[in-house]
Design goal:
The chain is 43% helix and 17% strand. With 398 residues, it is α/β, with parallel strands linked by helices.
Length: 398
Amino acid sequence: MDLLAASLEAGLARVAAAGRLRRRRAVESRDAAGVRTRVAGENLLAFCSNDYLGLAGHSRVAEAFAAAAREWGVGSGASHLVSGHCREHHALEEELAAFTGRERALLFSTGYMANLAVVTALLGRGDRVFMDRLNHASLLDAGLASGARFSRYPHADADALAARLARDDRGGRTLVATDGVFSMDGDVAPLRALASAARTRGAWLFVDDAHGVGVLGPTGRGSLEAACLDADDAPILMGTLGKALGTFGAFVAGSAVLVETLLQTGRTYMYTTALPPAVAAATRESLRVLEDEPWRRERVLGHVAHFRREAAGLGLHLMTSSTPIQPVVLGSEGAAVAASDALREQGLWVPAIRPPTVPAGSARLRITFSAAHETADVDRLLEAVAGLPEHLRRGDPS
């Protein structure tokens, strides 16, 4: 074994010894709704998808994808700035801008790329960036890559942010970045208080609303709509297409000058192949379904309310979340894995989330709900969780 392989093997052995080795599961088949799956020969009811509205398999969305693939093929062939930008992309950007109430929107291949583009294009040495301690890894990585002075404030603590902004007032551009909905806890950022703190110090508020767009707010515009905030309060918005909208990719929405700046200087935009036109066409149809079928938002949030009511009687440690992300914190990594395995034996797919994805001592089951679930599915999950041994529900792996 060469020196590189030996070093890597030793690193993997340490990960395994800590109980943090991940294993991919290949889905062999699933129904159109995406919740009834077959994995490694087992039929499993999935509570682990971010397809919150059940749009990934929607007949209208799938047909829009197929029709566009027949017209455009399955790839875009180049970056947006070469020959990859087609009329489907352009129309989707215009529709996303209208959907979010912004002047313009810009498509990215992933949310990770979108966040990297925003922070590194807007900030550099001498600037400042403040981030919630539990922000998504893509935001944290973007802050570090920017070269700006980097500070993390305590989770969802707008007062702490205001104090740090006041202390570190040394000129340059200042950006405050936060998840709208935190992907592992499911809670919503205190956006009104954050916007006030940012405005007071002349900072820009950047909201990554990957898990809010399509679900929160009276019309599904996301966590900013739910907080009654607009583009003046949060001038930079990122949303993903692969969660509630059921397709793939991401976008940044904001002023015309912001989007033009990202188009001209955002490296992850400039040097990446554009999304397949068929994905853009499918997403356009997803936006129409979102408007036509508001019952999907009502249904998934109804599942959340039902689950929380019943789970409280089981003594589960639920976090403060009113979103489709419902973590059950078990603390011990061993307990989380054992509980996930026990649920799989009952035909339920609920993943164990362990450090470093979540802080040490907060390993959990991450349950996510979809409008594609039936109430009977939620009841089946509750019954299975209620049947877990007490030591697993309380976080003891023994």
